Amino acid sequence: MKKTFLLLFILSGLANFTCFAQLEPGSVFNLKKDFQSPPESAAPWVFWYWYHASVSKEGITADLEAMKESGIAGAYLMTIKGADTAYMHPPVEQLTPEWLDMVNYAFTEAKRLGIKLAMHVSDGFALAGGHGLLRRCQCKKLYGLKSRLEGGKLFNDTLATPETNENYYRDIAVFAYPSPTGKVISSRTEVPLVTTSKAGTNAQFLIDANNTKNFSSTDSCWIKYTFAKPFTCRSVIIHGKTNYFGSRINWLRGY
């Protein structure tokens, strides 16, 4: 039985290899051909922003015809902001009969040109919100809050309430778990000495909890946090006004 099984395994391997060898030339040829003339399934899609309740049928046709000319296969229609910052008058406010008529016209034009359309839910200020929705049905933010308590005792008190908006808040769950050793240690409890290679700069302000200044440098430099004694560092949080600065940090190293 072992020999039979081994023989079948080898034959199966040869059969697979033979099929692959026969298909490989055609596959390479198709890949080259498809790369030079991509099929419709490989054509790009784009986000199609309708800004500030400013949309017209002339603009819709012009946009879609430009997409068709550029080889774009489809677009996600995404409404951004409302009529309070409109670029044209009268504005076409989201979810009104006039706006729905524009959407219907956009789909009609897209069908005429052979372009696929999809609706993007946006992020709350356009299509996923609205004054007619109940609070419990509107977009919500999931917010968490930590409270450190001494273990081995019965806790009978009210936990702090997380951030709220328009006085709406509902509990989802409360979790209790033991904190790892050294969890309460941070740069807030053990204040380090902060130094930098940038000449003439006192970087100690970076550790101030109420600091509003940013550290900047036109040249490469380092920032060093020196603690009085070693501890287990589980995370590093870097605060900034934008999300671009993170790509400029080359490495973080502990000694």
UniProtKB/TrEMBL annotation:
Residues 1-21 form the signal peptide. Keywords: Signal. The keyword Lyase does not apply. The keyword Signal applies. This is DNA-binding protein.
